[in-house]
Specification:
This protein has helices at residues 2-8, 12-22, 30-49, 54-63, 83-96, 111-124, 129-151, 163-179, 184-195, 209-229, 245-249, 283-295, 312-318, 326-329, 333-343, 357-364, 407-418, 424-435, 447-451, and strands at residues 72-74, 79-81, 102-103, 271-272, 303-310, 366-370, 378-384, 389-394. It is α+β, with helices and mostly antiparallel strands and 456 residues long. The protein has 2 domains: 2-272, 2-methylcitrate dehydratase PrpD; 280-394, 2-methylcitrate dehydratase PrpD (60s Ribosomal Protein L30, Chain: A, 2-Layer Sandwich). The strands form 3 sheets. Strands 6-5-7-8 form a 4-stranded mixed sheet. Strand 7 (378-384) and strand 8 form a beta hairpin. Helix 8 packs antiparallel against helix 9 (184-195) and helix 12 packs parallel to helix 15. The longest helix is centred in the first third of the chain and has 23 residues, at 129-151. It is globular, with a radius of gyration of 22 Å.
């Protein structure tokens, strides 16, 4: 029995558990710590920008009455629920406007669920800023590495799987478990219990069930950590074992990718932040269209036709010519290209014009085709009614790993979303609190300006 346990304790699940439990903030490179702060600021901004979103409000109407004790807060809402419901609602808000961060190699948005789980537990347990930030970083890293198992060669995952829902609960369980001070064995169990709840289906995109998948990942992670702390067991090899996580969700899974360079190289450094509130594979198109519109001073009414070349998933996942509603439009390459020419911007406000007859007419003049481009690249060709042809190619779009948003741009994005629900002054106070997360004695203090309890 001891030999069997020894073999199992060297597997992927155990190695990730051991690393998660042992890692402290001071063990992490400064660049990784700084990226963790950026991820947190971006996450809070996205939550504030969607705290009153229809999907979040629907979930609260349905489930608030079943919440139990008030343990943690919803930023911007002035409401408190138990940890699991708070994680659900905040995880939904973080991704409801499709403005969340992205680990592009696996097309996963890890901080939406992981940040929700970590803040819910961290606030309730009065964790310190360094404890919280370490849990957030290790949780995001675990989610990304779990996705690597499914997507890095030779691994291949079905495009219909929504990776955030599939791996979000695993990363959330690690973040929550770390803040609940789980042992290595309990963390192994927590990851397995999270695997038992893993679910994500791309067919649900464009509906309110889409943000629910990220929120459910956050709730699943908190649930898994609490159950493991109470002694609920799972297998010792839930991630890499036969008929386990990777074996089920990928063909030829790359289990070694989960532990390759663990503690030395960090997937979180490849995390990117969105400048536009739409599907990540549309961003290169938006970038190219905006550059063309401004640089060439294009009058949209004089456009005869727009031809777009983008990566195959760009067409497959966002090739919706005429979105039916706000949720649907976030996955419409045609809509965001159209408003880029017509309004010369691509912000949250551009969700409001999906039924504008002029925008509809413009979308009809846009034609997208798939070609072998990377997901952060696009080619756009505009033919004007007078026969003039204008072209623009984007090799790496803004917000990509090769053209990342800087801290000022991330702060600006935060303030823009925060000011949808609060004054500019309070938004700046909230941003300052988020920027100082790693030095707080109690992470719950970051919630004060976010909930209106303290504007000092």
């Amino acid at each position: 029995m001891q030999n069997q346990m020894s073999r199992e304790a060297t597997g992927v699940t155990w190695q990730l558990s051991r690393y998660a439990v042992a890692t402290r903030l001071e063990d992490l490179p400064v660049a990784v710590q700084e990226q963790g702060v950026r991820a947190f600021i971006n996450w809070v901004g996205c939550v504030l920008g969607a705290v009153n979103h229809d999907a979040v409000m629907s979930a609260k109407r349905a489930l608030a009455a079943y919440s139990g004790p008030e343990e943690a807060s919803l930023p911007g809402a002035g409401q408190r629920f138990n940890m699991m419901q708070t994680a659900l609602f905040n995880g939904m808000a973080a991704t409801a406007r499709v403005f969340d961060d992205t680990y592009l190699s696996a097309v996963v948005h890890p901080t939406s669920p992981v940040g929700a789980a970590a803040l819910a537990v961290g606030e309730h347990t009065h964790s310190s800023g360094p404890e919280f930030l370490a849990a957030l970083i290790v949780g995001v890293e675990t989610a990304c590495r779990a996705a690597d198992m499914l997507t890095l060669a030779p691994g291949k995952s079905h495009l219909g799987l929504y990776m955030t829902g599939i791996v979000g609960g695993i990363g959330s369980a690690v973040a929550a478990g770390k803040l609940l001070q789980l042992s290595e064995q309990q963390m192994v169990w927590a990851m397995g219990i999270a695997v038992a709840q893993a679910s994500g289906v791309r067919a649900l995109h464009g509906s309110q069930a889409s943000p629910f998948m990220a929120g459910n990942g956050a709730r699943a992670g908190v649930t898994a950590a609490l159950l493991a702390r109470a002694g609920m067991t799972s297998t010792e090899h839930s991630l890499e074992g036969d008929r386990g996580f990777a074996d089920i969700f990928a063909s030829s899974p790359n289990s070694a990718a989960a532990i390759d360079g663990l503690g030395e190289k960090f997937d979180i450094l490849d995390l990117t932040f969105k400048p536009f509130p739409c599907g990540i594979v549309s961003h290169a198109v938006v970038d190219a269209c905006l550059l063309l519109a401004v640089e060439c001073d294009i009058d949209a009414s004089k456009i005869e036709r727009v031809d777009i070349e983008v990566c195959p998933p760009g067409v497959e996942l966002t090739g919706i010519r005429h979105p039916k509603d706000h949720m649907n439009c976030r996955n419409s390459l045609h809509h965001w290209a159209a408003v880029s020419f017509m309004r010369r911007r691509a912000s949250i406000a551009e969700e409001e014009c999906i039924h504008d007859p002029q925008v509809i007419a413009m979308r009809d003049r846009i034609h997208a085709s798939a070609t072998e481009l990377p997901p952060d690249a696009a080619n756009v060709r505009v033919t004007l009614k007078d026969g003039q042809v204008l072209e623009k190619s984007v090799e790496h779009c803004i917000g990509s790993r090769d053209r990342p948003m800087n801290d000022d741009e991330i702060d600006g994005k935060f303030l823009h979303q925060a000011q949808l629900i609060m004054s500019e002054e309070r938004a700046k106070i909230a941003l300052k609190a988020c920027r100082s997360i790693e030095i707080l004695a109690d992470v719950g203090r970051v919630m004060m300006p976010l909930t209106g309890d303290d504007a000092r």
